[in-house]
Write a structure and sequence with these properties.
Elements: H1 2-8, E1 12-18, E2 29-35, H2 44-54
Antiparallel strand pairs: 1-2
């Protein structure tokens, strides 16, 4: 999924992380996305593209997906 997204959207950086909580039964995954070429980051159109591609993961996911957006701390 990430290879396809990054090929379709040049400049997109995608990562998949897992929480190391010692449980072999269930994993918590976190996907991160960033656009190096865009000051705006991941816009609404790209977020829709990510969600569309992520449907391919439905068979391996237990529970709902959700998105969170973060901005740099300005100081």
């Amino acid at each position: 999924m990430h290879r396809t997204l990054t090929a379709e959207h040049p400049g997109l950086a995608a990562r998949l992380l897992t929480r190391d909580d010692g449980s072999a039964e269930m994993q918590t995954w976190m996907e991160t996305y960033a656009c190096a070429d865009s000051a705006a980051g991941v816009d609404a159109a790209l977020e829709r593209a990510i969600e569309s591609r992520a449907r391919s993961l439905d068979a391996w996911i237990d529970g709902p997906r959700h998105a969170e957006a973060f901005e740099p701390v300005r100081g």
